[in-house]
Amino acid sequence: MRAKVIVPLLGILSLIYIFLLPNPPSPVILKIRIFRLLLAIYTGVTLSVFGLFLQGALNNPLVEPYTLGIASGAALGVSIGILVGSALSINILAFLGAVTAATLVFFLARLSGRLLREGLILAGIIISFFASGVVFLLLVLNGRELHEIIYLLMGYLGRVPTRSSYLHLSLSSLIAGVSLFYIFFTTKALDIIATGYESAHSLGINVNRLLTRGFIIISLNVGLLVTQVGVIGFVGLIVPHLARLLVGDHHRPAFYASMFIGIGFILIADLLSRSLTTIELPVGVITSIFGAPFFIYLMIRR
Amino acid sequence: MRYLVLLTLLSCVGERQKSEVKRVVSLAPSLTEMVFFLGAQNRLVGVTTFCDYPPEAKKITKIGDFSNPNLERIVALKPDLVLAALPEQRRIVAELSKMGISVFTSHPKTIDAIIDEMDSLAHLFGLPFPEDSLKKLIYPLPNFDRKPKVYIELAADPIITVGHPSYLNDLIIKSGGINIFASVEVEFPVVSWEEVVRADPDLILIFHNQRCEERLGWKELTAVKNGMVFSGLNEDVFLRPGPRIFIALSELRRIIEGCVPRL
Amino acid sequence: MIEVDGLTFHYDHSVVLDRLTFKIQSSEFVGIIGPNGAGKSTLLRVLGGLLKPQAGRVLIDGKELSSYPLGELARLVSFIPQETHFSLNFKVWDVVLQGRYPFLGFFKIETKKDIEAVQEALGKTRIDHLADKSILNLSSGERQLVVIARAIAQTSRILLLDEPTTFLDIHHQMEIMSLLKQLNDEGKTIVMVIHDLNLAALFTTRLILIDRGRIVAQGSPEEVISEDQIERVYQLKVTRIKHPARRLPQILLG
């Protein structure tokens, strides 16, 4: 029932996105804009659903690929890959960076002895800052300009599309699609995990296996994502909450809602990033400006 | 800001100081080139690691690089005057001023401004300056009925170009062209590829070494179809607002002259 | 049906369970009692497959516990923790329906059979009237009933409960114990860690008294709850009497 409202709304938003921006577009311009739209959709859907999964599997409303340091780890992989040179290695290194960051975060969280809830966030922030710092260091020492680094670390949907960009996006979307398929079928399990890990185990859910698989899948996708758009924060955090506000706490409807709201969220953020000032801001700036206070609000509310 | 203007004015007006400017440290390659151009290189006691023209400049003591000049090394050289570039070196300029060291700041927004800065420096050094000869290099300006639309790309990822406040924008104008981003009031704005495609420049100057041929819409650009894409230009000549800008000016004029018939 | 042989479990360097050996037959109602830190909860968790012992074997229906795939185990054994914290806003019906998870196919869609199991479970626990209410709005006693209903919907033959009545008032305590007795009569094997000796005596058919990781005594309540044993294990003076109506041993403090 709500889908009837959301889908056309998104359709209108997409059309605005493509056409309302100044001047009627030529076929080439259209190709460029559609690419950006598809990239935005890919970004919004994956980040939101992964955020939903992580929040459910870790029984923690504050987690998402960004706050867990996964995205920054991928950025580190990307920057090492830039220095190494080949396009393939950038993707592989991004994946490795993401997985390494995720593992480190868990390791640190356990080590800290705190309640896993706070421990994860703390460890995620630490790894995030550390990885970002190293990215800066690596790239600056190698003569890269600050602006390049900033746009990598703050996320940018407007990278110049080349012929291979479409291919890259298609492959990534394919992988993302399969991953989303997998996550969709874990939604019932996520509902149960919300009642406790022991209950979940008793009902036949191998939580460790779920977490491990989920992490690998998310790391792979976040790696591919960061390679194309850089690090965009808070989308995965906010959208699941908005989705749950809209359709309730069950993960299956929240899955659908997250996808659509994720698309809307990122499109609005991108539109804002291009219209607020004369220059194009990195979209991550917008999401952070809205995300950080929301994050604080969530932390306080708990 | 007012401090700096005051200092600069004082430095310029104080003719009595001209013989007292014996030890000069330059924090930017463009300024180093200016000093050499004026013939005052024997007063130059410190330069940056990027100051490589003329070759003699490389032999002078280094005080760091452009983004991070070393304050201690500068002070250790006991300079009478430090030459710095704004806005990048704003902080070190403030530090030096606090220490009572005279600073000459450079931030030319036009080619004429570059000449004016060299003139001021010449005054400070008590040296003659061929202002009129240089002005003759610029004027009269070429005037084409159909001014070619020029696009300068300084970086590819994200795309950085030049806007109205940049001297490069003036360079384009004085070469007879129009900068497609002349209306943007930011010196080095980040723009989207889409905007470039829509503007459809007649002439493209590339100042980085990323490949562009793969871009969507590249082949359809007028400049590309007419072969008016130049990526091998000497960056040091174009991107330093110093005396060699006149070389850049003549080169760009030559290119645009070649471009105009195809419009 | 449940065979434990030489079970040893330790956390780092402290031994929690020390070579435990015992058997639990089908349809027994077993209470595991003992002082705090004796290892009761750990034992229950090992039986439920939540913890892996360092030594010893646990056999369920003659097959090693560790060789059961998790899904199959879930259809056989239910584990009910002491307290369940619900953070998400689910309806009672939804929570009980979760008990059917081990039976859902690949696409995880519920069938009529599942719906019926839930209805039956709600009926048995007599919380039909709560079906549509949010789990967040229930009292702890009602919540516990919901969790038990979920375990009933799981149609497992073995129920493991970790102190299910500890946080409840006496009304709910009796309600749950009676429910468990009823389930036991229907054929379910119940293994329960319980603190309240008197409650244990009234309802269980067999008691296992554990102290410092070892079985001190096992048998009927009559056999296990002796003043001697209780005083030794709990380090406390007690008086044993016979329940006037039920003729079962009860412990009075002092």
Automatic annotation (TrEMBL), chain A:
SUPFAM superfamilies in UniProt: ABC transporter involved in vitamin B12 uptake, BtuC
Name of this protein: Iron ABC transporter permease
Positions of transmembrane segments: 6-22, 34-54, 66-85, 92-109, 121-143, 164-185, 215-242, 254-273, 279-300
GO BP terms, alphabetized: siderophore-iron import into cell
The family this protein is said to belong to: Belongs to the binding-protein-dependent transport system permease family. FecCD subfamily.
Record-linked InterPro entries: ABC_BtuC-like (IPR037294), ABC_transptr_permease_BtuC (IPR000522)
UniProtKB keywords: Cell membrane, Membrane, Transmembrane, Transmembrane helix, Transport
GO annotation, cellular component aspect: plasma membrane
Localization per Swiss-Prot or TrEMBL: Cell membrane
PANTHER family: ABC TRANSPORTER PERMEASE PROTEIN MJ0876-RELATED, FERRIC ENTEROBACTIN TRANSPORT SYSTEM PERMEASE PROTEIN
UniProt xrefs under Pfam families: FecCD (PF01032)
GO MF term set: transmembrane transporter activity
Lipid bilayer topology: Multi-pass membrane protein
UniProtKB/TrEMBL annotation, chain B:
Superkingdom, natural source: Bacteria
Keywords: Signal
Annotated signal peptide: none
Swiss-Prot/TrEMBL GO biological process terms: cellular response to iron ion
Record domain Fe/B12 periplasmic-binding: where: 23-263
Entries under Pfam families matching the protein: Peripla_BP_2
InterPro entries, sorted: ABC_Transporter_SBP, ABC_transptr_periplasmic_BD, Vit_B12_bind_prot
Disulfide bond recorded as keyword: no
PANTHER family: MOLYBDATE-BINDING PROTEIN MOLA (PTHR30535:SF34), VITAMIN B12-BINDING PROTEIN (PTHR30535)
Record protein name field: Fe/B12 periplasmic-binding domain-containing protein
Organism: candidate division WOR-3 bacterium
Highest classification ranks of the organism: Bacteria, Bacteria division WOR-3
TrEMBL record, chain C:
Assigned keywords, A-Z: ATP-binding, Nucleotide-binding, Translocase, Transport
Keyword Amino-acid biosynthesis: no
Coiled-coil region list: none
Annotated GO MF terms: ATP binding; ATP hydrolysis activity
SMART domains, per database record: AAA
Record carries keyword Transport: yes
Pfam families referenced in this protein's UniProt entry, alphabetically: ABC_tran
Record domain ABC transporter: where: 2-237
Signal peptide: none
Family matches, as CDD domains: ABC_Iron-Siderophores_B12_Hemin
InterPro entries: AAA+_ATPase, ABC_transporter-like_ATP-bd, ABC_transporter-like_CS, P-loop_NTPase
PANTHER family, alphabetized: HEMIN IMPORT ATP-BINDING PROTEIN HMUV
Protein name (record): ABC transporter
